[in-house]
Specification:
The complex is a heterodimer of chains A (278) and B (243). The longest helix of chain A is centred in the middle third of the chain and has 16 residues, at 165-180. In chain A, the strands form 3 sheets. Chain A has a 6-stranded mixed sheet with strand order 6-7-8-3-9-10, with helices on both faces. In chain A, strands 2-1-4-5 form a 4-stranded antiparallel sheet, with helices on one face. With 278 residues, chain A is α/β, with parallel strands linked by helices. Chain A has 10 helices and 13 strands. Chain A folds into 2 domains: 2-215, P-loop containing nucleotide triphosphate hydrolases (Rossmann fold), CATH 3.40.50; 225-262. In chain A, a hairpin with a 2-residue loop joins β4 and β5 (63-64). In chain A, α3 (91-101) crosses α4, α3 (91-101) runs parallel beside α5 (135-148) and α4 packs across α5. Chain B has 243 residues and is mainly alpha-helical. Chain B has helices at 2-16, 18-39, 49-80, 84-89, 94-120, 131-154, 160-175, 189-194, 197-209, 216-239, and strands at 43-44, 47-48. A two-stranded antiparallel sheet of chain B has the order 1-2. In chain B, β1 (43-44) and β2 (47-48) form a beta hairpin. In chain B, α2 crosses α5, α3 (49-80) packs antiparallel against α7 and α9 (197-209) runs antiparallel to α10 (216-239). Classes of the chains: A alpha/beta (278), B mainly alpha (243).
Chain lengths: 278, 243
Amino acid sequence: MIELRGLTKRFDDFTAVDHLDLTIQTGEFFGLLGPNGAGKTTTISMMSTVLLPTEGEILIDGQRLDRSASVQKRKLSVITQEYSMRQDMNMDEVMEYQGRLYYLPRKVIRQKTDELLEFAGLTEFRKRTVRHLSGGMKRKLMICRALMIEPEILLLDEPTAGMDALSRRQMWNLLRRVNSEKMTIVLTTHYIEEAQALCNRVALINAGKLQKLDTPDVLIEELGAFAVDETSEDGLVSHYFHDREEAIAYLSRAGNNAALRSTTLEDVFVVCAGRKIS
Amino acid sequence: MGIITVLWEKWVEFRRDFYKITVAAMISPLMYLIIFGMGIQTTSHGEPYLHFLIPGVVAMATMTGSFSAIAQNMSVQRLYEKALDQVMVSPTPLWQFILGQVLGGSLRGMYAGGIILLLTSPIRTDLTFNAVSLLIMLLNGMVFSTIALVLSFLAKSYTDAPRFTAYIITPMSFLCNTFFSTEQMPAGFRQAVSLLPLSQASGMIRAISNGEAPGVFGFVVLLAYLAVFGLISVLFIYRKKNL
């Protein structure tokens, strides 16, 4: 279980994360959503100890996480938003470095490297240095590197950014599979449909503060399961209804410039972020 | 274990960039030896100047090799590649990472110093280099590796590394008992310069090369620098809020 208690991060006068309280259960697939600059990456960076909180604390299975907490860190693996790898190492070396940092025996490192690179379709590029890989290949390599150590907790910061639709779907299937093996996953993503498809619960944060926390279905229900998109002079405006009949009645009044659809998590996100699609 | 991991990483880097590292380590010291030691032939303390110069250039090469191996590399890893994140999140104790960097940097410095010893070995100088000389080179390299670590943690951009070299390494290269004795400097300035680590390392290696005992004071100074900068780098990696 991961607990964030009053987690706060300030950079000079700017508060990136503001007294965030969250509890993520073991085996949960948890989404952290918010607009750009909401504090998602800063939260993940604190959970991976790259940044230290200004206030508050993070507990992993009841034990405080800090840079000296080797037992807690052994459970963690992270896929960062940026390609955080030695650019001058080849794939085999990147994997071996990771294995060595987590004290894996060399035989296990070799075996897991073979399996994961094969799984990701990277075997033929294994001697290529990172700087000569495409963005998608780098992303896949980071995933292989993170999974190599069989973590109990996987922190994913925009893991499918830059991936094509097919690779993204493959990634979803992989994440579902590892999550079904009781791996706790914390995901930040800009692809809201990704969070809706994968996450048991999502937290919506804005300006570093927790706005909403629940399952995607409950959040959608709370907003209204039916949406009518209406095009007006101000642009596209969405209206939400709990009752289908009510939505249809509004639609008939609005005329040709409106359309009925199901509400998605993206609607919740947009409303929460206080934005209007224009 | 973490120390071995870092040394392995340094070995991968060394193996890949062997020619670049070797040529870079040779060029400047070799130029100094050719120009000042062989081109402008003069004497120092009644001996050929080359006898004075070689121990100083060996100490300087050790310093430069160690410093550049860590400063540039860590700044890039921390600020550009973000590869340090991989280490921060791993269970490898961070003090072991620091110690591995210091040893790895020092070995690179010794390699640079060793090249100079090898290149000057055909010249008949009757200078002595022994295991204590190697120990001083190791210690000197460790000191400059820790200084490089501290500066790379302070760097705001990866282009800061060349600036650190310009501000710290270049002045020390010329002033610290390498090309001329600190005894010729004005009082006050002389004492300040002689307390710098390269002055002590040069002095001790030179003393051994002349068949004299290196003295304990130099070791104390180098160990003091190592302790202070080692402690600062460990504090930085554990406590710095925004690494």
